[in-house]
Automatic annotation (TrEMBL):
PANTHER family registered for this protein in UniProt: COBALT-PRECORRIN-2 C(20)-METHYLTRANSFERASE, PRECORRIN-6A SYNTHASE [DEACETYLATING]
This protein's pathway: Cofactor biosynthesis; adenosylcobalamin biosynthesis
Organism: Aquipseudomonas guryensis
GO-annotated biological processes: cobalamin biosynthetic process; methylation
Lineage: Bacteria, Pseudomonadati, Pseudomonadota, Gammaproteobacteria, Pseudomonadales
Primary enzyme class: transferase
Name this protein carries in UniProt: Precorrin-6A synthase (Deacetylating)
Length: 255
């Protein structure tokens, strides 16, 4: 039997990692890393830093696979995601077959939390269901949204009100009904610009918890263009962008 751990490591600051996550990593014989190309080497460097700093001398070996890319402008978004997950599953299975011996424990160090806009759980569940020699566990981590609201010193929701967590693609279809707070992830097209003039307050952050962290907050009408410009410059400078934001209807910004 082989054991696979999906370990949430938090959103950027090595100190975000939990004691439960560290205990899990100290059990690992091998840690799987997905290579996302030169622009994102910092992400795997952070993973290695966490192991070097916090594993108390435990030295698991590292094994790398190539991260498949999703077709960004695909006409059928769901089909493109399904294809990406099939490709990722093949990489996961190759690592499990070739880099693990029977009885060993392996870990994926998942950015943020494995349950939030990450397909690792679905992929590993499918692998485990198709074979009889794999047990897996999920260890939660601090999400980028938790880190974002902490850095801005605001609650995620208004008192007694719901908050919706969504994507830029879905936000482009319109403001969700029944909520006054919307947390947005995976917005590659600056969707917030479409909502200027609707009386919203925004709390935006990029690379939260890292040395490259950028934070901007204020009335959306006043800061939307600055966020867009800052975001474009940061993406150009670093070769990638990892950001999220909280939108709240005016009058409830601090409730």
């Amino acid at each position: 039997m082989k054991e696979l751990l999906l370990v949430g490591i938090g959103a950027g600051d090595p100190d975000y990692i939990t004691m439960q996550a560290l205990k899990a990593l100290r059990r690992a014989d091998v840690i799987f890393l997905l290579d996302k190309g030169p622009a994102k080497h910092k992400l795997n460097a952070l993973r290695r830093e966490i192991c070097a700093r916090f594993l108390d001398g435990h030295t698991p070996r590292f094994a790398e696979g190539v991260q498949p890319e999703r077709e960004r402008e695909a006409a059928d978004y769901r089909a493109s995601v399904d294809e990406l997950n099939r490709d990722k599953q093949a990489v996961f299975e190759q690592l499990i077959d070739e880099q693990m011996a029977d009885g060993e424990v392996a870990a994926f160090m998942v950015w943020g939390d494995p349950s939030l806009y990450d397909s690792s759980i679905r992929i590993v569940e499918a692998i485990a269901a198709a074979r009889g020699d794999l047990h897996y566990e999920v260890i939660p981590g601090i999400t980028s949204l938790q880190a974002l609201t902490a850095r801005h010193r605001v609650p995620l929701n208004s008192i007694g009100r719901a908050v919706e967590i969504t994507t830029g693609r879905l936000l482009a279809e319109g403001w969700p009904q029944g909520v006054d707070s919307v947390a947005v992830m995976l917005d590659a097209k600056d969707t917030y610009l479409r909502l200027v003039g609707q009386g919203l307050h925004v709390y935006w952050g990029a690379y939260v918890g890292t040395a490259d962290e950028i934070l901007i907050a204020g009335a959306l009408d006043e800061v939307a263009e600055r966020i867009a410009e800052t975001r474009a410059q940061a993406r150009e400078r670093n070769g990638w962008i990892m950001d999220s934001y909280l939108l709240r209807k005016s009058g409830t910004a601090r409730d």
